[in-house]
Fold these 4 entries.
Entry 1:
Amino acid sequence: MVRFKHRYLLCEVVAEDPRCRRCIDERAVTTAAKGALARAYGDYGLACCSIAFTGQVKYLNAYTGVVLLRCRKDFYRLLWSALPLVTHLESRGQRHPCFFHTLHVGGTIRSCQKFLIQYNRRQLVMLLNSCTNKEERESIQKSLLGCFLQEAEEEQFQSGEEEDDCAETD
Amino acid sequence: MRSTRELGLAKPFATRAAQPGHHYLRVSVEFPDGGVRLNAAHFKQLIVSALKELHGEVGAALPVDVLTYDEKTLSAILRVSSSGFVKLWSALTLLGSYQNRKCAFRVVQTSPFLLALSGNSRELVLD
């Protein structure tokens, strides 16, 4: 099979400042990642991981700070090891100190999405334990109930569905 | 044979040395504009800056040793671990300038064994 294989890195942008979340956009994340790659791996590393530059940030959620980055399968380790060297995101002339916390490396977008759904459910449970306000507690409980009901429905319908995203075994 | 992943390349590259081995290179640097004097420390810094440009901080941290250096002919024998051999050679090849002067690295001989660098069958002159 002659096709380009990719690895998708699911990362979370962690920052102290809550205003930082609203300012992250695709360009800031791309420039930060490329800067870290250039510093750590030079021109060679920058070129390896910046093929298909326009399609590199596949998903960005400004509310939770989750970013999905794509790179070639042969060079995903370069990108993965360069991500901890990112210290700040710059956008519109403002600098926000932050760091990238890699959650998952997957071979397809679908596997990353599955992981993200499970991760968000676990985060909701943790948030429920640690929330202070009664209204927050109620809204989190409502969303938790919603997603557990959905999970129960999925299990009923899941009868011999084949999972064909086993590209990670290459 | 090193696997392709260990060398960080997409295509296979074969080195026939013993596994945790070193590679030795005989190199010389040329300045076409002439009149440059480098001592051994400057030479080493030149190599490290070439590695840093092409391969970043990780490349600049590659353990390269200058075993001998001749200031008059600007030639040296370098030693590098086999895993970094390709990075070093590619960085030396792509070095274009040093302190705003044009320069070029010529790699005369390489071998995984230091003894092989003592003789050069290309420059052998009979009679």
Entry 2:
Amino acid sequence: MMALPYITEHTGFTGTVYATEPTMQIGRLLMEELVNFIERVPKAQSASLWKNKDIQRLLPSPLKDAVEVSTWRRCYTMQEVNSALSKIQLVGYSQKIELFGAVQVTPLSSGYALGSSNWIIQSHYEKVSYVSGSSLLTTHPQPMDQASLKNSDVLVLTGLTQIPTANPDGMVGEFCSNLALTVRNGGNVLVPCYPSGVIYDLLECLYQYIDSAGLSNIPFYFISPVANSSLEFSQIFAEWLCHNKQSKVYLPEPPFPHAELIQTNKLKHYPSIHGDFSNDFRQPCVVFTGHPSLRFGDVVHFMELWGKSSLNTVIFTEPDFSYLEALAPYQPLAMKCIYCPIDTRLNFIQVSKLLKEVQPLHVVCPEQYTQPPPAQSHRMDLMIDCQPPAMSYRRAEVLALPFKRRYEKIEIMPELADSLVPMEIKPGISLATVSAVLHTKDNKHVLQPPPRPTQPPSSKKRKRVSEDVPDCKVLKPLLSGSIPVEQFVQTLEKHGFSDIKVEDTAKGHIVLLQEAETLIQIEEDSTHIICDNDETLRVRLRDLVLRFLQKF
Amino acid sequence: MDPECSKLLPALCAVLADPRQLVADDTCLEKLLDWFKTVMETESSLHLLQDHPCLMELLSHVLKTQDVSPRVLSFVLRLVGIFAAQEDCFQYLQGELLLGLFGETGALSWTAWNMPSVRSGWIQGLCSLAHHPSALHFLADSGAVDTIFALQGDPSLFVASAASQLLVHILALAMQGGASGSPISEAAAWPICAQKIVNHVEESLHSKATPQVTQALNVLTTTFGRCHSPWTGVLWGRLSPPVACLFERDPIPAVHSLMDLLLSVARSHVLNFAACGLWEMLAQTLSRLSPTQAGPLALGTLKLQHCPQELRTQAFGVLLQPLACILKATTQAPGPPGLLDGTAGSSLTVDALLSSKSACVGLLCQTLAHLEELQMLPQCPCPWPQVPLLGATVTILRLCDGSVDPSSSMGGRLCGTLGGCVRVQRAALDFLGTLSQGTSPLELVLEVFAVLLKTLESPESSPTVLKKAFQATLRWLQNSHKTPNCSDLSPDALLFLGELFPILQKRLCSPCWEVRDSALEFLTHLIRHWGGQADFREALHSSEVPTLARQLLQDPESYVRASAVGTAGQLSSRGLQATSASPENPLAQQGLLMDLMHILSTDSEGFPRRAVLRVFTEWLRDGHADVIRDTEWFVATVLQAVSRDLDWEVRMQGLELAQVFLIQAMGQPSLHCPYTVGLPEATSPRPHPEFLQTLCRLPLFEFAFCALLDCDRPVAQKACDLLLFLRDKTTHCSGPQEAGDSPNSASVEAVLQRWREGEQGQPLGDLEPEAMLAILRSLDLEGLQGKLAKSSDHVEKSPQSLLQDMLATVGILEENEADCY
């Protein structure tokens, strides 16, 4: 989502973007915060010479190791964000969206965040599921819709947890313990985070924990340009929430308990550290603020303010950034650092359960998921294990999905269907020949009645029209059935042919009429009569062959 | 039978015989049978029947009509069995009655036979009856044995099991009568009844149906468990071939029952095992069974007293096999000598470990538990492979936390299977704790400490795993590198503690109360053991642990508060309490004593209050500085708070505290043990009159008198003991005043009387020591002690009361017949 403006505004994109409403609204908040953080500290000029490969390799690490620096872009503006968002068409879970008649696309709840989706892309005979960031844990969003993923030909699996060995429950416990430990010793806690997502769950855990841990008097600050909107938006997306939270709305109560934290003044939110915050600021306290990379945003200020005291603690909960790299510019650092990445997305055990449940014919996933992580090469459990083995792909690789499109659905117009006279060729199987015009538009195929026989041209205009209509030739009947060779030979003999010889071939038989110097090749799906320029003989033989076949 | 009961019996029999009268409570009938059994122990059942014709009337009524409820039918069957256990009474009842009840035309033909309780009563009746040769003839003639055979497969497990037991009982009775001297080696010469049973068992052993084989095996297992006469040797000689044949079948039927039988035979001391081929059979079985099945058999074999060394080695090998596989799968290169050197890991074990997660977890947990049990037993194999076992256990724990780097593909798969497996972690930690008793090389001890630290630190560890890890840690700290005559911590242990305390700090702040609780318990143990050691004190002081522990006195969870009270008390006893009194922390400013007093008087839950009293009692006993500063005030305040407490355990602890206080002032109670050699009794200090004044002022007397009338018996008992002690110590204190002499004591008596009547609001008022002593002497404390020592239902337990109750219940039921309830 964060890359959307780059796609829609810089690549000549002219299409439609489909997204759920919370995705769009929260995406807007995340982008707005990012733009705000970046624009707060405008740079008079920017350096780009260093991107020259010859210069770059002389730079210290990690700059010299950065890849494809030439493709790096400046951050987008709010205008571009708005323009990108204006191209979004909102959709709801299970809504079916027709794409040019070729496929139908449906978003399903993925259980990871408010409005987060997995997608089904299906035609009449094929079904592809695209599973991205999904969660089977009980958190705030609607639970993952697994049932709709069943019977997929292909399941594209991405967005698994980045820390497969960390259990989110354990990490939340760790987060609470370290937070309480610091605050009880008189220190402050800094939580670098995004303004939406896991923070809702963290606040809910803290809501249950602070009283029991004797932290009721400790202020919690949430500082973000979009803090207020984020906290309020979360409360109004009732239909996208888990069942428990939905039912609270009917009581009516706010679905998230952070409303009560705000009411009781335990949680305070500010757009930035300037203004009201500086008046209210009281220590020891807990601060939630961005950006989790520690490179910009209000978090930088707190790192500078608290970094020198060992009483304080910074707790990393977002798994997107390496905490060691994030901390590198702040070294030496006295404050304690705790890494509790909370990633609720699917781990490999959950994936294997999901695949057992959904049973797709084929699984397609990034290459990284098909082997254990390089740092833990023995952990055979940290990879996707399924039968048949998953097809893997690399970045920017084009992959042919392992199925062939065998069938298309074609509609028959009612008046044409009326005119059909089916003939039963086997019990339960009837056939009818159809003469029609196949009309194809928007990947939809319709058989329409053929035009009436063309009238003799009366005017130029008419003539032009009739030229467009395909010629309808008189149709020969279709033949079916097989020719029993022995009976066929007997019939030939009856009709005066003698000196008949039958040879077996790989595909059928050859009947040789030596006297007439004629050869009849009988194969499974064709019969050839080869004779020297004797049309009468050929027609006689043809008619004898046709006696054994059904016509319709 | 006492005359009162004799009088009640006819009415009761009438009630039982009346189908309209429902005996609502089964337990009454059970108690009634128990009572009859007790009566029969001393009296002749024949006389009893003759003296109480109502009993015979009841029996014949049931025999004729069977219109009583199934539970009464069952009762009657069992009662007749009890009567007929005596041979003369058996003769008296034989004929119509016994055959009518137990014969083929008896209970078997009743409609009520469908009820399992009736079938069970029939079996139990026969079981009681089968005590003499006449009974054997009866059983043989009546066809009962065939019915018992059929009942072995009864759908009710209770009936089926009882039927098997009865067969064993009959077999033993028959053989007992038949073989007085040396065993009859020819089975053909055995009594007919015994032959019949043995033939049936043998046939069942040959059966293709597993349930029948199981029944036969169960009968044999019970026989060898119960009967230790020489004839059992002959029996085994005859039946061991068909038993051995069972091992030839694939799959082996009724594996568990088979193992039970082999172990039961092996435990019997009558057989000559070498001759009867039992050891070979055991050895074969051990090698044929799957690792999971063989585990219990191997443990049972190792527990046997007389067992060839070779077999013991094989059995121990079975137990070690899974751990050997683990070591093999994870050890780099040849490495140190492992378990079971030279033998490749059994492919069966490897298959079991790798087949599925549940099989792997089940096998490992079972193996660890068996080895843990074995290590504690006197039969523990020697030499005990301490080093490889410790290595394997540490490896298992590391497989669970994902920190092991396996060298083989099997190791990789184990890593995936065991990762985060709580069951295996718990079992491994338990065994690890037990292994602390052995001697281990230093580098391995350090590995143990490392894996314990990792487990304690890991956010993935569940509360139960943490608790086990704390327990194991404590045991290793106690046992690691013990230097003789020194309880100090080793330098390695101290280093370990340095790393442990930061983790403990975090655990004390856990959002999970179970974790906070076990961390506090662990801390209390640590302080109790090493609180006096300078290095330990320094390490503890340099951490925040004492402050955090003190803060948990206000935890919302009562269990945690209770543990925090214990920890704070222990810290304070050792002079280790949190010292940093910060102005923000009001807790640190006031003394711990006041905090605990506050908890005692205000905490809504019982656990923290009980914990406070335990701490206070310990403080008083040990002469804690805060207590001896003003002991009288301390005791008075505690007693005041306790006397109002609703929790009986708190009141009981209050009495304990009072007793410690008295002992300190008056000396130990004198022992009245008749077996001790009378040492010259040290003259206990006679209580100073002022001390008695103090007791009155506290008011300890009032508290004790009040507790004497406590509705909870243990409290009253304790108060009684306390007052007896006081009376003993004050015998010589004052003149021969009698109660009621002074107006003061008269008023106290009056108040006590009102207390007895339930008005306990009124205080005793200011008391003089003399008056107190006078009352103390006037109370029949010994009598009270005797009364309290009996269980609270001793009056209701008498047979007379039972009969009355049964009659009364029926009466009430009758009255309430029309009541919709």
Entry 3:
Amino acid sequence: MATPVKVYGPPVSTAVSRVLACLLEKEVPYQLIPVNMSKGEHKMPEYLKIQPFGQVPAFEDEDISLFESRSICRYICEKYAKQGNKDLYGDGDNPLVKASIDQWLEAEGQSFSPPSSVLVFQLAFAPRMKLKQDQGAIRQNEEKLKKVLDVYEQRLGESQFLAGDKFTLADLSHLPNAHYLVNATDMGELFTSRENVGRWWSEISSRDSWVKVVGMQETA
Amino acid sequence: MGLKLHGLALSTCTARVATAIYEKGQDFELVAVNLTAGEHKQPSFLAKNPFGQIPALEDGDLTLFESRAITSYVAEKYKDSGHDLNRHNNLKEAALVKVWMEVESQTFHPIIAAIVYQHLIAPLFGQKTDQAVIDANLEKLKKILDVYESKLKSSKYLAGDFFSLADLHHLPYIYYFMKSPWTSVVNDRPHVKAWWEDISSRPSFKKVAEGMTIGQK
């Protein structure tokens, strides 16, 4: 039996949860290794060897050591193409399908993630960490996120999921930030007030894989 | 029918795609998008990129946006010609290319883009340069390039001893950054400097850089 892959980092981390969701979709056995961020473990020399920017997650599969959650997800889909959800990153045969997934994965990384990450930090995490909120940043990024979700509203009126009619990595990549916005802030209305986005959010967030990841976050 | 690249020669993201196409020994038709006239926000362009940004690629019936998705598509479609940009025959190397593509996308890009915007682009629109933004991002850039310096001691390029999309994606923004007063951030780091001089002297990029005229008088 193959050694389980290793994922380093806490499940409450958005980037770690992105990788966990992918592993569950692909039915890849994994070992979750804690990284004590409150004690600064992610900035210590031992950890920096596997993630030189001092961020979570880090990932190991036999002799391959990776970081950056979206690249880890792509790797998992390619290496374990024949098991679990086979539509997550194209079927290997049609480059047009993969290109569409990459396009919307990039849209997530370049357009959705920056404003949503600021809002998640400011609204969900800063209060817990007793940090002062930056109201200017909140307002500015809320406006940016609205514009992005307007584009999604139009797109999701044309196809069931972002890259086409199947759930893919492009949708999965949105789960971590959107989950916090909908469940831990008052920004959920941005999703639920848009009919197609609301429908899409409801479908992707109720997938078994994501429900399981949320369970891990809540018991962490 | 060949590739049509909708964008502008001086645009960083258009240049990213153009370089990849040339690296694969292919050609394209550049279809200029008149940003000054707001063409990128018109319905005919929004049909190609609903986010209203350049570039967009047309390849027959396929239209793609997001430059890093386009380069990946080009690298894969033409994998049997030109330079091997994605190491598709080696799972481990391909994975490392993906890692450093994401580093550029998530860690490097926001910082360098902020500096280039303030220094080169804001003045074009009559906006005041925010030096505080530049200063804060220069400090972040130094820390990022310290990691690159360390990495480039153990391999010639970012993902290994081979030039790949991971390096290519850095070309356009560093090119404009090197027109700024802060080039020491690159030049003070010998391995980063050597890497930059190597990748920016590739014929594919030299051809593209001829059109990258922002800031030139």
Entry 4:
Amino acid sequence: MVVTTTVSDSDEHLHCTFASRYARTSLPRFKMPEGSMPKEAAYQIVNDELMLDGNPRLNLASFVTTWMEPECDKLIMDSINKNYVDMDEYPVTTELQNRCVNMIAHLFHVPVGDDETAIGVGTVGSSEAIMLAGLAFKRKWQAKRKAQGKPYDKPNIVTGANVQVCWEKFARYFEVELKEVKLKEGYYVMDPVKAVEMVDENTICVAAILGSTLTGEYEDVKHLNELLTEKNKTTGWDTPIHVDAASGGFIAPFLFPELEWDFRLPLVKSINVSGHKYGLVYAGVGWVIWRSKDDLPEELVFHINYLGSDQPTFTLNFSKGSSQIIAQYYQFIRLGFEGYKSIMENCMENAKLLREEIAKTGKFEIVSKDVGVPLVAFALKDGSRYTVFQISESLRRFGWVVPAYTMPPDAEHIAVLRVVIREDFSHSLAERLVSNIQKVLKELDELPPRLSTKAAHVTDVTDETQKGNADQPHPKKSAMETQKEIFNYWRRISDMKTSGVC
Amino acid sequence: MVLSKTSSQSDVSIHSTFASRYVRDSLPRFKIPENSIPKEAASQIINDELMLDGNPRLNLASFVTTWMEPECDKLMMAAINKNYVDMDEYPITTELQNRCVNMIAHLFNAPLGDGEAAVGVGTVGSSEAIMLAGLAFKRKWQNKMKALGKPHDKPNIVTGANVQVCWEKFARYFEVELKEVKLTDGYYVMNPEKAVEMVDENTICVAAILGSTLNGEFEDVKTLNDLLMKKNQETGWDTPIHVDAASGGFIAPFLYPELEWDFRLPLVKSINVSGHKYGLVYAGIGWAIWRNKEDLPEELIFHINYLGADQPTFTLNFSKGSSQVIAQYYQLIRLGYEGYKNIMENCQENAMVLKEGLEKTGRFNIVSKDDGVPLVAFSLKDNSRHTEFEVSDLLRRFGWIVPAYTMPPDAQHVTVLRVVIREDFSRTLAERLVVDIQKVLHELDTLPARVSAKIAATEEHDKNGTVVKKTAIEVQREITTAWMKFVADKKKTNGVC
């Protein structure tokens, strides 16, 4: 919106931000503007646009941390101008990363002595961690096959169809075949028996998930380990296991310490975990830990003379911020084992509360398990009148972001809503969510059922009978009329808007 | 350090942070501590340890931005809990990324119609951007060779030996052969003729660098384009070019707009630039831009149903912070074309001030060119008594971090010191640096030369029995004494900020 009057330059600094000409001219969107503008104007413009983003704390779709203590925010801001990769210039930050690696490795029972250092690295997230782990497996397998004089051009990886997209990315970008164990209704994780059946001599590893994205379930890594150990004995292929503990890695050790899923199982050679999920740090940090030096081929590690000193590096990213690493260390020493345990117990209690209240409505079937990542996944018992997608959209009106999605093959007919319980999802928020869900259900119950092909058939049949009774009036509704009816109904509802948006 | 008396529990909350028991117990370093501690204690402990890190603004080794306006800091902090990948939940942030992509694409003269959307993506840095670009080239080449019925198992990439390590990473992780054009004394970038000679039918692309890490030089992309076009005409291989403009991409358009290096050259199919270098944003953002849709094979793009909505994604990383993308947009609209131009001109001027100051000492050869990334790379005219590495070490005492390193093959005998001029390196800092370098040279002049194999060899050859032959131990003792005297005599300057 360009205003025809122009403001003289000498008065510029007197104008309040919203009256200045900067907030009244439209910014180019595809080209850089020619001239500069005052920082206050730039700040205000960007800030105002961003008001229309969702509220991160009401985003119940994501596992990623959305709240940290102000003391930690301060540490993050102080280190925002430190480029993590300058190890020589920021030795303490590098030391903090190493401490985190060791702490996490010990949490996962890595078989190292008390003074021995663990093998691992901080990454930008579990995607990078998984790619690094996968690369290590691929290279090890290729070296083994070359030594045996066998072909090494068709590596594959065995995993469940419930894997997160980064495994598919890894497979596609690094040219590894993905062999997926299909799910079925009622069983939404990888079946260890089927997985081990799929293993062949070209399998570089079997990937198990601790905390499936879809239902939060922990896969039975112990069972997988046992079956695979047996198969390895008969075949001699020595196929290893990787555990994708992106979500579960910071939950299981605190809530279910007896559950054997980590390096206590001999075939587990590497584990990844997201620091920014239940590691309780903002988005941008993940960790990958290897069992021992042998599991990370030396040829993948670069020793570079960057800016004057030797730095061993095995990451895909190079320059990145240091803030999240420091924040992760802060959380470890601030919370300690008991702190993490308390927080996870709290999450589980809130999940239980939500689950029970949702079940009480009588309209939903709970798809997630009690033991697993603290989330509640639920499907409609009767999906004929309205779908979970409509519930999801309606909840947005109140400010909640609750995703709805269909399961992967072979359970595509199941659609669920999923609420993730993070540290900052309190008891009171859980109660409010339930009350909003009940409101939405009530509204949807009063709505006429969606127009479906079934209804269209009925119309056709009516048409035919019309032909026979040309002079009789008929209440045939055209598609247009039905849509108008629905539209009017929705408009009535939206006029009764509550102040749900925070 | 554990003290034998313990404070009573009831007094815990009134103790000042440094008297509380939390800062008096030593924290485990390899295991997560059993118990929690108050947030003030945790914050103080970490803050104190980090005091021993270098000062980012005195880190003259890095191109990466170390200062932004407080308004932008505020925007970044407000966005720190937004997971960038949740495109459905944060549509504005996604829109801002798209605007940045388009602005940068237009800056690079991408051949787009008005209203046509550019093809590009925000990444965590140039490493990720280069890997994505390389992947696109590799896949395109494989498809082409498959269609021709030719073998497609030995792809290679032609580049100069001056490439940054991420190209070597790309080559090693994605199984592409790296064919490097060696440097020569005095010529520290990729020679276009030699590069084009090395191109064969398995070459997926030729990578040119705009702003070499070592000496800031811009490679001659235009000549490369011309020579490669001729070769393509003869061979029919259609080999493309990628420009690694990590540093230069935000300099050349403002300082040297007539320099043709970008999409104005027809063989350039993709460009990467680091937002966190001269894009003037903190570490953690890069951009990859493709010429048009055909240069990015559709099969590499994932359309995923993540959290309930369709999201096309072509990145290696998934979840990451949104702050840097927002900061990049802030900079682009805050500064605009004239703002960036002013800042780059300022950097150039400060680089000249530093260069002239160094030349005046008469002790250095300037290895960097005037045109290019604003940095000054210099080596000692006479490095027989002391090396550039010693100069670098001594400068640390004043707080300056100035790296010294040897050139890659075939110029390994050349060692340089390099100072990068960033936005926040003011003229006064440049003048102070020159003064401190002069001080360092003065100190080094008073020091005995390093013990070298040469000296030991000459001692051995002296047959005269009365010559005082120094053993290795004696020589070392001599040096140690000289250093101790040196340190004792020196009055400590308050150079460390």
